[in-house]
Amino acid sequence: MRWKTESFAMEITDLAFDQALNLMHYLADTPDTGFVSLGPVSTPQESPEHAGFPQAFTAYPLETVKYTGKTGAAAAAPLLALENKLTTLGFESHPDHPFTGGIIGCIAYEFGATQEKPLHHLTGTAGIPDVHAGLYSWVVVMDTTQHRAQLVVQTATPEALKRRLYQHLSVPQPEPPALRMLTPFEPALGKQECLDRVSRVREYIAAGDCYQVNISQPFHARYEGPLWQAYRSVCRRLQAPFSAFFQLDRGAVLSFSPERFLQTHQGEVETRPIKGTRARGTTPAEDQRLARELCDSRKDQAENLMIVDLLRNDLGRFCVTGSIRVPELFKLESFANVHHLVSTVTGKLRPDVSPMALLIGTFPGGSITGAPKIRAMEVIAELETTSRGPYCGSVFYLTADGHLDSSIAIRSVLASEGRLTCWGGGGIVADSEPEAEYDESITKVRAIMEALEQA
Question: Whole domain around residue 150: which residue ranges?
Answer without folding.
Answer: 11-454
